[in-house]
# Entry
Amino acid sequence: MAATKGNCYLCGKELGKTAMKNHILKVHCPEQGQECRLLKIEGSEDKNYWLYVDIPLSSTLKTLDGFLRKIWLECCGHMSAFSNGCGEVGMSVRIGNFNDGDVLLHEYDFGSTTETLITFIGTVYRSQQRGVRLLARNAPIKFICRECASPAVLIDVQDYENKDPFYCRKCAEKNTDPDTVFLPVTNSPRMGVCGYCGESDTFTYAPRTPKYMWVKK
Ligand SMILES: [Zn+2]
Ligand SMILES: [Zn+2]
Ligand SMILES: [Zn+2]
# Structure
């Protein structure tokens, strides 16, 4: 599969992952203001899921953890942790303690773990605001119903390993096997895992919505 494109949430431009980083640095970085780190966030196993965010130096990893849970992880309040090559990094560590090029691994749920990679890209500035700001996100990946090739909205959880577990609603309704469990297709590396339904993801791209281009569900 070709690498997914995504949208800039500040101006709407559609670009690939690396081009998006260059776009953010070139177009959306004032030379002064609130000092932040620019982070690249990717699904560890499937890098077609990606985000760019900025976050103030004074924020902690706890704030970043909360954001990750909201946009693509939270199903039932599992434990989570950050680590680097040397071991676990505590939730109270501040973003300002990391250097450009540092990479962190975030793990959510130590049973059916979803792993996220966080790369510290560089120092950027923005107008004063709180917490994590979403700058860009991959466009939703289009999955196709295995029966009729319409756009898929559901995933057969038991069949996930078979690589073709996707169904449209109509074809899913024809499935009468009582053991089949469907979960919604989501724009998240946790799609199809545990009870993940993506209901706390309020960051769906919505062109022409003022200021931040996402819709509150
Ligand atoms: Zn832009
Ligand atoms: Zn769960
Ligand atoms: Zn179908």
Notes: The longest strand covers residues 114-126.
